[in-house]
Amino acid sequence: MSAVVKVGLLLPGVTLSTGHDDAFPLETMQLMRFKGERWQLFGKPVDTREEFGPLAK
């Protein structure tokens, strides 16, 4: 059984999902680049499971 949780401290579109057999609760990433004096988000949140596939066991 797994649960998806929305956490206010995470970026929009990033969720927390965990379960008994899931050691990686954060499976979404958002890319950033340094522009002058600060970091700037770009692109859309990426679901790492869709982009890179599941971990090999």
Describe this structure in words.
The structure is a single chain. The strands form two sheets. Strands 1-2 form a two-stranded antiparallel ribbon. A two-stranded antiparallel ribbon has the order 3-4. The longest helix has 5 residues. It has one domain. It is mainly beta. It is elongated.
Describe the secondary structure blueprint for this structure.
Layout: E1 2-5, E2 16-19, E3 28-35, E4 38-47, H1 48-52
Antiparallel strand pairs: 1-2, 3-4
Key traits:
mainly beta; two-stranded antiparallel sheet; 1 helix
* Amino- and carboxy-terminal Cα gap: 19 Å
Major beta-sheet overview: 2 strands, antiparallel
What letter string, H or E per element, gives the SSE order?
A: EEEEH
Q: How many β-strands, per DSSP? A: 4
The tally of structural domains comes to: 1
Q: Give the structural class.
A: mainly beta
Helix fraction, binned, reads: under 10%
Report the β-strand fraction as a percent range. Answer: over 45%
Shape: elongated
Mean of pLDDT: 80
Strand order of the largest sheet: 1-2
Give the number of helices. Answer: 1
Radius of gyration, in angstroms, nearest whole number:
14 Å
Give the low-pLDDT segments.
none
